């Protein structure tokens, strides 16, 4: 058994768009996997299945032996931290501190311990200096860092990031690479940026029209260019 198992997944949106078709994918503990493909390939839809943002309708997703269902959602969400593509939807509290504090507060952490968790999480993404800022005053790269800090604050085993380089300048992307490389978490990262993906992940999964058309060493994709 693999740590993460996606079996024959299919997903059709209510308007009839088939976004994911016959996707099976097995990921080991500690692996870093890039999900690549052009716009509309199905990356976001697949990624949203990994923490039950979309519940599997056809096929299944198992995390550490637990199938993702409505019943297991609470356990799954504690294990899988998802950083969405759109940072503004995740930065819903009026300060960086409050945003990062949101999940740990939810599981009962308060006072000095909460302060410590928030500071450590921000420090891990090199953003401690932003703690008192209003999220909407941040740059794209800073917003992304705060979103990542907010997700790691609840200490998930698996980190899933949907298009993390969106709205970040080249220097910010370099910073993001260093930050992500320091995390020992199992990582699944969707991106259409090959260079970024290769800097963080060794394995690449390429999607096209909802299907996996390549799964292997990212360097091989480069040599085929
Ligand atoms: P990617 O992340 O690779 O850009 P998506 O998973 O967002 O791909 O989209 C896959 C397909 O599903 C595309 O054809 C897209 O237009 C469609 N799609 C995405 N979200 C929805 C939705 N909410 N309703 C209908 N179709 C959608
Ligand atoms: P994200 O990856 O954060 O969902 P997207 O830009 O892919 O960001 O999509 C933004 C929103 O629009 C999502 O809720 C997505 O499901 C929806 N969406 C994307 N493509 C379509 C589509 N073709 N029809 C309807 N809704 C869509």
UniProtKB/TrEMBL annotation:
Q: Which EC number(s) are documented for this chain?
A: 3.6.3.28
Q: Which family does it belong to?
A: Belongs to the ABC transporter superfamily.
Q: Which UniProt keywords apply?
A: ATP-binding, Cell membrane, Hydrolase, Membrane, Nucleotide-binding, Translocase, Transport
| PANTHER family for this protein | ENERGY-COUPLING FACTOR TRANSPORTER ATP-BINDING PROTEIN ECFA1, HEAVY METAL TRANSPORTER
The kind of enzyme this is, by top-level EC class, is: hydrolase
Q: Tell me a Gene Ontology molecular-function term this record carries.
A: ATP binding
Q: What is the scientific name of the source organism?
A: Flexistipes sinusarabici (strain ATCC 49648 / DSM 4947 / MAS 10)
Subcellular location(s) of the protein: Cell membrane
Q: Please report the name of this protein according to its UniProt entry.
A: Phosphonate-transporting ATPase
Please name the InterPro entries in this protein's record: AAA+_ATPase, ABC_transporter-like_ATP-bd, ABC_transporter-like_CS, ABC_transpr_CbiO/EcfA_su, ECF_ABC_transporter_ATP-bd, P-loop_NTPase
Q: Which Pfam families match?
A: ABC_tran (PF00005)
Q: Name one GO cellular component term.
A: ATP-binding cassette (ABC) transporter complex
The beginning of the lineage is: Bacteria, Pseudomonadati, Deferribacterota, Deferribacteres, Deferribacterales
Domain ABC transporter: from-to ranges = 4-225
